[in-house]
Amino acid sequence: MRCPKDKEESLVDVVLSGGLTAHHCPACDGNWVESDIYAAWRSQQEERLPVPLPEDADMGYTPAPQDARAGLCPNCKGFLARSRIGLNPAFYVERCSRCGGVWLDQGEWEVLQQLGWDGAIDHLFTEDWQSEMREQEYAERERRATIEKLGEDLAQQIFDLTEKLAHHPNGDFGVAYLMRRFME
Ligand SMILES: [Zn+2]
Ligand SMILES: [Zn+2]
User: Pairing with 105, which of 8, 137, 183, 184 sits 20 to 30 Å away (CA)?
Assistant: First the structure.
């Protein structure tokens, strides 16, 4: 079986932390996990569904350079679909759309374990998760555009004010005041 990211490399058997059997690439340190092996392993784990991380969550992790590279399944040559995990920095877990095998670039398994999401990889490929990630990406883009237009300081004041109003029982009065000021 060859590495989906460097086609010259052969994968070797390995046991990941947590006792999951995988195929490891000695060149890029990525790991391939067969779907039936993962399903059997997962059935023995406690289930914990992933919740999107806050925008400013820093996982102290640098995605592997191979993360951005598209790959084909080493098992059946199916297309590896990507699912985004977190924002800072964003990285992607890949899963074969045909046989369900999972590709984890270097360090990704450890991050999933750290987050307690190692038993919930399937959930990361559901429509629910994907749409939550798209919403978060949209909010982040809007935030960056606001900083670009208003400058860091004023943008930060707007974000702080938004937070305060959102948490104040009469916050909508503040919003109405601002709208009236600008609509006149
Ligand atoms: Zn590799
Ligand atoms: Zn496959």
Answer: 137
